[in-house]
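Q: Could you fold this chain for me?
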Amino acid sequence: MNIRVFPDAAAVAEAGADVIADAARTAVGMWGTFTLAVSGGHTPWVMLRALANRDVPWQRVKIVQVDERVAPAKSRDRNIEHLRETLLENAPVAPKNLFAMPVDESDLAAAATRYARTLEKLGGSPPVLDVIHLGLGADGHTASLIPGDPVLELTESWVGITGAYQQHRRMTLTYPVLDRARTVLFVVTGEEKAEALLRLSRHDGTSPAGRITNSNIIVLADRAAASRLENRDRRGCAPDRQPEGTMR
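A: Sure. Below is the predicted structure, expressed as C-alpha cells.
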C-alpha cells in the first residue's frame, strides 16, 4: 500500500487529479481506452474539477460509478448530479461515455445485473477497470460496502444492492471488482477518518475497506486523516512535501 500524506484537503485533491491523469494517459497509450470509477464526497468533487483541467485524452475516457444512493432522478442526494457538475460541465467527456447507475428503476436487483453487464462491456468478464477511486468512512466503509451488510459477502456479483444506510439503500460495486482493478485510489481527508485509515493501512479485515485485497492501492491523505499513522506506515513523502502524482 502506497500512502502519501499532504498538508490539507486541497493538496490531496490536486494530487488525486494528477494520479488519475497520469493513469489515463498510460492506459490510452497501452490499450486505447481508460476506465475510471468514481465515488462521491466533497474532496473528490474538488479533485474532479481539477482533473477537468489536466491533459487527459478525454474522448477515450469511460466513467462509471462506484456507488449511488437510491433516490429519484435529479435528487441532490445522487452522486451522479455532482459528477455531471464537476466533470462533465468542465471537461470534454462525451455524455455517452458516462454510465450512471440505474438506481431509479423499480427492480433494483435487475438494474444491478444490467450495470454489471455494462462493466463487462467496458472491462471484460470479469471486469478489470483501470482506476477505481474510493473514499473512506469513519466507520470503515468504502464504496457502499457497509459494516454488517450482506453486500459484503457477494463474491459472484460485480454490483450489489445494500440495505438502508443513512436513510438510503445503495447500489455499489463489490469486492471482486475492487480487487481486480489496475489501481485503487483512496482519497481520505479529515480527522474523523484517522482511525479508519489506520485500520485500512493495517489491512484490518474487521473494517470493510481493510478487506480489499488489491495489491496496487494508493492512499492520498491529509495530515488530519493520517494523524494516527506511524512514520513506518507511510509510503511516499513527509507530510509537508508534495509527492509527484505518479503511479507505482
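A (continued): The CA atoms of residues 2 and 218 lie 5 Å apart.
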